[in-house]
From TrEMBL:
Membrane-crossing segments per the record: 250-273, 280-298, 310-336, 417-443
Molecular function GO labels: acetylcholine-gated monoatomic cation-selective channel activity; transmembrane signaling receptor activity
Free-text function comment from the UniProt entry: After binding acetylcholine, the AChR responds by an extensive change in conformation that affects all subunits and leads to opening of an ion-conducting channel across the plasma membrane.
Keyword Membrane belongs to the record: yes
UniProt main location, coarse: membrane
Compartments where found: Synaptic cell membrane
Signal peptide: 1-31
The family this protein is said to belong to: Belongs to the ligand-gated ion channel (TC 1.A.9) family. Acetylcholine receptor (TC 1.A.9.1) subfamily.
Highest taxon in the source lineage: Eukaryota
Organism listed in the record: Drosophila virilis
Record domain Neurotransmitter-gated ion-channel ligand-binding: where: 51-247
Neurotransmitter-gated ion-channel transmembrane domain span: 255-381
Underlying gene: Dvir\GJ17782
Name of protein: Neurotransmitter-gated ion-channel ligand-binding domain-containing protein
Record flagged with keyword rRNA-binding: no
Length: 445
């Protein structure tokens, strides 16, 4: 019995399969060719900027510190101040500024001829490595964060980051010469992790501390500034030091003009007639006025040990002098109006009618007993009418009188005491004038 071997595919079937394969493979080949042409056109449409960014930041690690010739990159810091304000009560300074941060990365440079002469790239700051900049002497309640801005990358591999910032720092204030004071403050800006810092604004040798574009404050202006680098074991920072001067034109009208008026009025009380009780009232008004100024200073100025403003000391000294002046005026009023049983001592009377009286301008007062009877009701006599006693001549016979054998009239006796009171006023005027001059010189008022 013969067995027939059946082939899986006959010759005719094999021919059919080959024809089907050819029909399928030809369209696929044409489609592959079309895809190749399409990808080539897409590659041709990629811009030079996209190619540059792709080549620069492929396998880029934003946490890795850049290097220059195998060494960690150097960080350059600069500060451009826009506005300044000082809080005297809390001893703080606030600056609105732009922080300029520069560093170098050799791996991020390129040949501009290969990329259509592109020299700079603007990159979001979260896509590149940045140094962690910190204000070491910060005094704000919230940490001073830098605003997010773009970073400029140049073709030589240099990065420039200029974020705006509002820095609030502590400042050791010296208020002795307030309101004509100058304050020197420091901003300690650096990083805890990097020690390669320097104070350099940019490659054109501009100052690290720039305040030429400063918006003029109503009270402060920067008169000088400089920088210095401070290196510690584990960190380093740049000190931006500047001196700010207060604009004091307003204080001249608010503080010094009233002070001048107070001094003039305090001295003028010594030239009023000794019988006037209004002198004491005038001193009391001046005392209340000075007390009001001292309360104003207490609200305006901080309490600083050893740095009390000279103008405050001047007002305090004036308050003490006015208190002493009030006591003196009480004594003068008593000498001029009291019912004296004794005459003025002879040696004092001789001084009042001698050269001392001439120096004190007492010669213009004439004893009423020396005037004609028709004129005794005028001038000083009229002022003394209120202080002549009804039985004054009887009082002069008291055994307490200095010289009862030569008892003067009541009007002449009263005149001598008024003359003594006037002399006390004139002497106090000279003494207080000298004291105020010394205070003005010492406290530079």
């Amino acid at each position: 019995m013969s067995t027939k071997i059946k082939t899986l595919i006959s010759g005719r079937g094999l021919l059919t399969i080959l024809l089907v394969f050819l029909l399928v493979s030809v369209p696929s080949a044409s489609s592959q060719q079309d895809d190749a042409e399409g990808s080539g056109s897409k590659a041709a449409n990629i811009s030079a900027l996209d190619r540059l960014q792709m080549n620069l930041f492929i396998n880029y690690d934003v946490n890795a510190e850049p290097t220059v010739q195998g060494r960690p990159t150097n960080i350059s810091l600069g500060l451009s101040v826009n506005y300044i304000d000082i809080d005297e009560l809390n001893g703080k300074i606030t600056l609105h500024c732009w922080l300029s941060v520069r560093w170098q990365d050799d791996d991020r440079s390129w040949n501009i001829l290969q990329y259509d002469n592109i020299t700079k790239l603007h990159i979001p700051d979260h896509k590149v490595w940045k140094p962690q900049i910190t204000l070491f002497n910060a005094a704000a309640d919230v940490v001073n964060y830098l605003v997010s801005t773009q970073v400029i990358l140049s073709n030589d591999g240099s990065f420039l980051w200029v974020p705006p910032a509002v820095y609030t720092a502590y400042c050791n204030l010296n208020m002795v010469n307030w309101p004509y004071d100058e304050q020197t403050c420091k901003l300690k800006i650096g990083t805890w992790s990097l020690s390669h810092l320097q104070a350099e604004y940019n490659a054109h040798n501009k100052k690290a501390l720039d305040y030429e574009e400063l918006v003029q404050s109503t009270e402060w202006e920067i008169v000088s500034g400089w920088t210095q680098f401070v290196h510690q074991d584990y960190y380093s920072y740049v000190e931006f030091i500047f001196t700010a001067q207060r604009r004091s034109s307003m204080y001249t009208a608010v503080i010094y003009t009233p002070a001048t008026c107070i001094v003039l009025l305090a001295l003028a009380t010594f030239w009023l007639p000794p019988q006037m009780g209004e002198k004491i009232m005038l001193n009391g008004i001046l005392i209340l006025l000075i007390a009001g100024f001292l309360m104003y200073f207490a609200q305006l100025l901080p309490v600083l040990a050893g740095n009390t403003p000279l103008v405050v000391v001047f007002y305090s000294a004036s308050l003490l002098l006015l208190s002493i002046s009030t006591v003196i005026e009480v004594v003068v009023l008593y000498l001029a109006t009291a019912q004296h049983k004794r005459r003025v001592p002879d040696f004092v009377k001789r001084l009042l009618h001698g050269k001392l009286g001439n120096w004190l301008l007492l010669s213009q007062f004439i004893n009423v007993t020396e005037l004609p009877a028709s004129q005794q009701g005028n001038g000083v006599a009229k002022e003394l009418d209120e202080h002549v006693y009804d039985n004054a001549d009887d009082l002069m016979t008291s055994p307490l009188d200095i010289n009862p054998s030569e008892t003067p009239s009541a009007r002449a006796l009263q005149f001598d005491w008024v003359l003594l009171a006037t002399a006390v006023d004139r002497l106090c005027f000279i003494g207080f004038s000298l004291v105020y001059i010394v205070l003005a010189i010492v406290y530079s008022i």
